[in-house]
Design goal:
40% of the residues lie in helices and 21% in strands. It has 458 residues and is α/β, with parallel strands linked by helices. The chain folds into two domains: 4-231 and 432-456, Aldehyde Dehydrogenase, Chain A, domain 1 (3-Layer(aba) Sandwich), CATH 3.40.605.10; 235-422, 3-Layer(aba) Sandwich (Aldehyde Dehydrogenase, Chain A, domain 2). The structure holds nicotinamide-adenine-dinucleotide (NAD). Nicotinamide-adenine-dinucleotide binds next to helix 8 and helix 9. It comes from Sphingobacterium detergens.
């Protein structure tokens, strides 16, 4: 078993910090402590729990520059995007501030007649939040902030690629008044994640890959506790022939595909374009991607930094090789960039088809395939030809036309004239291999409680 996590800077490949991994006995102690702490935390008035989360948000904002640098150093995310994420994730706190009381308070159903009925929303208990590195603020806040407000205790396991950020969450939650026996950041990699599955916990909330998600759901199934999975996607975007501004559509599509180096669960992963505008769209798209500034993610003007994980370079290389062998036309990139750091050139293929890996399996990097279609029906068929079900997008001037396509998508989220977007006001959920359950919205608030029905004869 590994005793330390080495935090490597993806821009250099160098080890920046070494952090001890939690031991098995420390983990057992933490579980006992948090199980007890949760009982007291659940009795703290909801408004007081909420106030701690609001104070946490203010501390995060007050320290955003330092936090952004920590995130950029460990994940390679360009500094402006790290700041965007930190500031943007505050909308989860605002969502809780304005909605938690409404959705967590008890509901009186009948107060007349012989038998009165009401519903009380009780916390689950001690839950595990096993998290990902690509948007640790967004995906972390979706789970541990909502869980804490609902009165749960949380064992938060950050990804081994975002450990520094996870430790900061713990520090500022404690400073904001969350008791130390209610939240614990558990430092470790997959092995520690695996140990969490063996513990007597009351819920598992996971963000990460399909493979790990499936393993977690299977392993903990016998406990019959809530399991939520937010997994990967192969999100399609269809550009219809009636769009008014082709250049604008290309810029927006490229940003959806390449923001955070394509390492977003809802990044645009494949593009279908009507044959009537295909050439114009592809030229505008290639021109836009070619204009991106690549380099040191600490620099303000950099849009494409290194990938977070060195291993993903091999995945991208394999998809490139496969696409070339099957006849796709390489328009940009297709290779690693530097001999230090995990850089991959933004890569655009056209004339792709579904025999190619890059149209079927998550790339999770700066790589996109574009395919020509001759009708909406063909686009619908191809968009649906996937084992994933996270998001799907249509760019069209005609709302009715777009709606007719989006209604047919078996995905948790659909977009008209936008893409790669998450809002706390609506549920975030994946279907098929993209996940189970919802975070955010009223559903996401209620995900961390269990209803108790009262039948009362006064
Ligand atoms: P991953 O599955 O490799 O790891 C995720 C977490 O699981 C990490 O904390 C890891 O240590 C832990 N883990 C690994 N093996 C484990 C095991 N056997 N038992 C318990 N825990 C284990 O995923 P990743 O590379 O960190 O994240 C990238 C993936 O996450 C992509 O597929 C992406 O699409 C997906 N993602 C989805 C969403 C969403 O909201 N749907 C958001 C962000 C990322």
């Amino acid at each position: 078993m590994q005793n330390n996590i080495e935090i490597r800077n993806p821009a250099t490949g160098e080890v920046d910090a070494v952090i001890p991994v939690i031991t098995a006995s420390e983990l057992d102690t933490a579980v006992a402590l948090l199980k007890k702490g949760q009982l007291s935390w659940a009795k703290v008035p909801l408004q007081q729990r909420l106030d701690c989360i609001i104070a946490f948000g203010q501390l995060i904002l007050a320290n955003k520059q330092e936090l952004a640098e920590i995130l950029t150093k460990e994940t390679g995310k360009p500094i402006t995007q790290s700041l965007n994420e930190i500031v943007g994730a505050q909308n989860r706190i605002e969502h809780l501030r304005t909605n938690a009381v409404k959705w967590l308070s008890e509901e009186l159903i009948t107060t007349t007649g012989a038998t009165h009925e009401k519903i009380v929303y009780e916390p689950l208990g001690l839950i595990a939040n096993i998290s990902a590195w690509n948007f640790p603020y967004n995906v972390g806040f979706n789970v541990f902030l909502y869980a804490l407000v609902a009165g749960n205790a949380v064992l938060y396991k950050p990804s081994e690629f975002a450990t520094g950020t996870g430790i900061q969450f713990e520090k500022y939650l404690y400073q904001a008044g969350i008791p130390q026996d209610v939240f614990k950041c558990v430092v470790g990699d997959a092995e520690i994640g695996q140990q969490l599955l063996e513990l007597p916990l009351d819920g598992y909330f996971f963000t990460g890959s399909y493979k790990t998600g499936l393993h977690i759901a299977t392993t903990v199934a016998h406990k019959l506790v809530p399991v939520q999975l937010e997994l990967g996607g192969k999100d399609p975007l269809y550009v219809a022939d009636d769009i008014v501004d082709i250049k604008k559509a290309a810029i927006s599509a490229a940003e959806g595909a390449f923001y955070n180096n394509g390492q977003s669960c809802c990044a645009v992963e494949r593009i279908y374009v009507s044959d009537k505008i295909y050439d114009q769209f592809v030229e505008a798209f290639v021109e836009e991607v070619a204009s991106y500034t690549i380099g040191d993610p600490m620099k303000q003007d950099v849009f494409i930094g290194p990938l977070t994980r060195a291993a993903q370079l091999t995945v991208l290389d394999a998809q490139v090789k496969d696409a070339l062998a099957k006849g796709a036309i390489l328009r940009l990139g297709g290779h690693t960039l530097e001999d230090t750091g995990y850089y991959y050139a933004p890569t655009v293929f056209e004339h792709c088809n579904h025999d190619m890996e890059l149209m079927r399996e998550e790339s999770f990097g700066p790589l996109i395939g574009i395919q020509k279609v001759t009708s909406d029906d063909e686009a619908i068929h191809l968009m649906q030809d996937t084992t994933y079900g996270l998001t799907a997008a249509v760019f069209s001037a005609d709302q009715d036309r777009a709606m007719a396509i989006l209604e047919k998508m078996n995905t948790g989220t659909v977009y008209w004239n936008c893409c790669d977007r998450v809002s706390p006001n609506v549920p975030w959920s994946g279907r098929k291999n993209s996940g189970l359950g919802s975070t955010l919205s009223a559903q996401g608030i209620r995900a961390f409680v269990q209803p108790k029905a009262y039948h009362l004869r006064p």
